[in-house]
Each structure stands twice: as structure tokens, then as C-alpha cells.
# Entry
Amino acid sequence: MTALAVHPVPGAEDGPPDDADEARAVGRKRSTPYLLLLPAGVWLIIFFAVPLVFLLSQSLQTGSLTTGYALTWNFAIYPEAIAQYSEQLIRSLVYAASATVLALLIAYPLAYTIAFRAGRWRNLLLVLVIAPFLTSFLIRTLAWQNILATDGPVTGALQALGVTDLLRGIGLIDGNKLLGTPLAVVTGLTYNFLPFMTLPLYASLERIDPRLHEAAGDLYSTPWTGFRKVTLPLSMPGVVAGTLLTFIPAAGDYINSQLLGSPSTTMIGQVVSGQFLRVLDYPTAAALSVVLMLTILALVTVYVRRSGTEELL
Amino acid sequence: MATSALQGAPMPTTDDRTTSDGDLRLVGITKRFGRFTAVDDLDLTVPQGSFFALLGPSGCGKTTTLRMVAGLEQPTQGQVLLGDRDVTGTKPYQRPVNTVFQSYALFPHLDVFENVAFGLRRRRKKEVKADVDAVLELVQLEHLAKSKPGLLSGGQQQRVALARAIVNRPSVLLLDEPLGALDLKLRRQMQVELKRIQTEVGLTFVHVTHDQEEAMTMADTIAVMNGGRIEQMGSPTELYERPCTTFAANFLGQSNLIQATVTGTAGDDLLIDVHGQRVTLPRQRSTVTDGRLWLGVRPEKLRVAGPDDAGNRLTGIVTDASFIGVATYYLVRMPWGQELTVVQQNDGTPPLPPGEPLTVTWLPDHGFGLDATQDEHAGAEAIDPDAPAPAGAAR
# Structure
């Protein structure tokens, strides 16, 4: 939060440069940021801006794969797609939000411990946080099929503890199965996106001067009050970054629902992938993608505004 | 009046603060970190309302002592008492003690007002606004109440840190090298200001520093610490005029320490042999009364002798003379090889050039005698008032 000192461009404050060499040097200095942005800019234009335009255009086209598509400005596809798939859309947002909250509850204590209490274990724990990335997303999710299998250890343990009845009571699972339930999908989402929550949280917690904790204690704060009034507010940039990095991909995810869920847990990502790859209804798939994107954009904007962390970021 | 609200406010009387009147006492306090003893069986009483300085080099245990008073460290042995209340083992937030941290540790997400109000709000005080405004006026920061600490200069942050602590009217205010991060000019200015504020609010200040000038300017009482123990304690004048150890003699100002031997007594004076020359020293100004001793004289107490000056005299050769306007600093080589430092006030006589013989004289009452077994250089190499203490070095 200590602002980096902005160094004035050399020569800028010395009046007009007195020879051409200096003028070129100043010119080079001024163009440096643009040069540095160039690779990412080009990349984004080719692989984001252009496809986005294609996607928008695709959503407004009519026709079929065999007869070819024509841009007919068919805006009616949007209300139709939303009406048809609003259930999956809302479900996706609810699942993603649940997974985000769960990930936050798990990751915050973890990041806090790594940042303030881990001592010499800090680096090892950080490596363990990112270790799952060493295997593929798909393999890890398939592993959860085994973990949550009906005759697997987790189901057995939950049953022995009587938790299964409780979960069934509140409608999170049906029967004695975990697999194929919303709970399984949310568990998978939480697990898969946990590192994206943990790392930004760790980064923002680690920046907090431990002497601030001492100062809070010295000023009559119990450890809990000190946490609420000092640590938590100062870690808000990490909370916001972590929740965004979890919520956004989780809302569009289709692997977890496909591998751990059932038809009743279908998420919007599955619908989009199905429309593109199986049904071959490109306009509907494109329209749903745009709807998902705009919904997330709107939610994220409201969220960032409300959390009021712009100046901390 | 800036301080009326503060002075008029009653002392905190919440249940856990009923005995906030009284002295701070440390009884037999020891702190070990592993095998390292940071503070070694220390006894100390700080009278209520005094400005007390713990002075010593980095690593002498002064910051650890302070942290034990704050409750940020627990002593390995011994007790911390505030008045009659034993606060040993209590948490920092349970103690009516506040700290001005070395790096200030201001809350970056709160503005100046909320930083200062932090302690009051935690104790659910009423009239937070009035108290905070009064204390901000005291430190002359009313106009910055809505600024975030990151936008303030070092001196302003220092004042916020001070305001944040004194607004709580603690029984004891702890200052951990509070001026260490400021430049020299600002530091001198803040020294005067801290002393003014302490006088105005009348709180007990315990000030940790390695800067002897800072300690002497502000404190009523100074405890010189070395190696986890207190070497000597007293008023700045007492410590300066009559050091009791070579460490105190060298750490607090400069001293010429001359090897000498007591040869006898004459009335209340010791007769002392300095490499064949006879000088005298009042008996009560020496910690040893027979055998070998260090004879100490401050450089400014040595004067260039006129022909009929009374007092002790020694003659040597000028090896260096630095004229600095208000005075001349001489190095005078004695026949036995030692160089004495002499500070001669500029009284109009031209400085003597190197190579000239010079007789120095001093009043017997200006000398002091120290235990000859002590290291004559103890504390001398530690003088570096402008070097910031490494963070945590005192632990």
C-alpha cells in the first residue's frame, strides 16, 4: 500500500532537450511501456477480442451446420436461450458461489497459517498448495469419483457418523449416495479452485506487517478483535482476488458436474459444450456463452464496488 | 487549550484498571531466548509521572525490557508491577500500557483519526471524538485527521503514533526508539516536543534509545544498560559527572581514562600517582580507594593550564588540534604514550599548533575513579547515535 515512487522521466523536468540524441532517448523512454504491453496486447486481440466478436456474431446468426449460417441479427435467440436454460444458469451461479464460500473458509485459515505461523515450513506448505497442479485437472476430478464413490471411504465414514442423514435432510444428497449429488459437484469445484483462493490470500496476508498485530494488542484488542479490525480489512484485496479467481472459472466449469454430478446437477458450461459439440446448435451455444459472460461481469462489478477495496488493490 | 480535555479527563477506571496509579516496578526480571540471556535479573522502579530512559547499545536488552512491560514478551523469571498490580503473565490488551513502536506500526487502512481512536473504540469509550481531537491538537495534526498514514511524512507518522498511544492515558507510555527513523534536525525538534508533551499530559514515559544525547535531553532519569543489566542509573547530570563504570563513562559522552595508582590519602582526598605525577581525587568520587584504578576526566574538564592555575596538572605534546570555532579539540600525547582529548573553549587565545608542549589542568572535583579491572574501552565503540539500530537487534 505504500505507493511506489513515480520517477519522472529523465529530461522531462529539465525543459526541452537541447539536442536530438536526448530527444530520441526521451522518446524511447516514453514508448517503453507500450512496447512492454505489446506482446500481451497482440495475444489478447488475436485470442480474445477477435473470438469474442466471432462469438457475438455467431449468436445472432441463423441456419445449420449443413446449410451454413447467415447473420440475420436474430436477437430473439437471447430470450429463448435464457428461458430454456435459466435453471442451469442459476444453478451454475449457486454452485460457484457455494464453492467460493467453502474455498474461502478453507483457504483463509490455511493462508493465515502459512503467512504467520508456518516458520520454516512456509515454503514447503506453499509447494503443497500448488502440488495438485502437477497432475491434470481431469485426472484429479476423476480421482474424486473414487473418493466419493458409494462404497468408498468417505460415504462409509459419513454414514457411520450419521452425517448422511443430515445431508439428506437438508436436500444436499439423495439416498446414501454422494456421487451424482450437488454436494459432490460443489466439493469438486471447491477442491479444484482452492489454490486460486489460497495464493492471493497468502500474498495479501504475507504483506501485512506483523507489528500491526502487536500494535492492535497493545491498543486493547483481543486477538479476535485485532483480526477483525486489522488483519481482515488489510487482507481484503486477497479475499476479493481469490473469490474472483474461484467464482469466475467455477461458474463456467463443466468438468466437475459432468464427472461428479448427474443430469439434475447440469451446469451452464455443460449446456454450452453440449450445444457446441453434440447438438451443433452454434447460435444457442454462443448466446449462452455471452449471457454467462455478461452475468458474471455484472456480478463481479457489483461485488468489487461493494467490497470497496479499490484503493487497497 | 489543547490539553484541557486530556488533563481534565479522569484516569481510566474500568474494572481491570483500578490500580493504574503508581510506579512501574520490575522485580528480578530475566528473559532468555534459548541460551541467550537478553535481560539478566533486572530490578527497576520508574516513579509515576517521570520521563525515564533506558539507554544502551543494540542488543543490551533494553527493547526486550520494554516489550516485557508492554506484555509483548513474557519474562522467563521475575515480575512486572504497575502500582500494586502484578501484571506479569497478562496479555498486552489487558495492560494499561501503550507503546509507540519503532516503525510506528500505524494501521494503513485507517485514517489518522481512526488510528488515534483505535484504543478508545476497543475500550468502548464515550466521547471518542473529543478525546481524539484534543490529542491531535496536542501533536498539531488536526488538519490531517482524514489522511491515511501512508501519505504522511516520517515526522507526522511519528506524531500519529504518539497520539494513538497517549490518547488512552496509559499508566505507562513506552517509546521504542521513537525518533530513530527521523533525520537529525527533525529528531532534535521532536525531542523538545516529546518532552513538552510529557510535561503537559503528566504520564510516565519509558523511553528506549541508543542515542545518549536523546536520553539526556529528555529524560529525568536514565538507566544505562549493557549486557542485559543496568550499569548505572541516575539523572543525566549524575551519570555524566560521576560515572561509576567504564561503560557508563564511555557510552554517555567521552572520557579520558588514565591508568593510575592510589598511593595514600590526605584528608578527604585520595593521593594518586599517574605515571610518576601526583594528582588528587576526592575520595567520594572514586569507586576504589586503594591500589590501581582508572582515573577519568571528561575532555571539556581538561583545560590548557595558565602559569598559576591550581589543580591537577599533566604535561604532554600536542599531536592534533582541530579548531571548530566554539572550541578547539586537542589530542595531547602524554609521556607514557596515551593521547588525552582536551576540549578548550574558545576564549580568544590562539590554538596551539601540533608539536607544542601543553600542560593540562583540571579540578580534583572533576575527576572520577573507576575499578581498574574494567575494560577501558567498554561502551566506547558503541557510540554511534546516528546509526539506526537494526530491527529486533535488541532482542
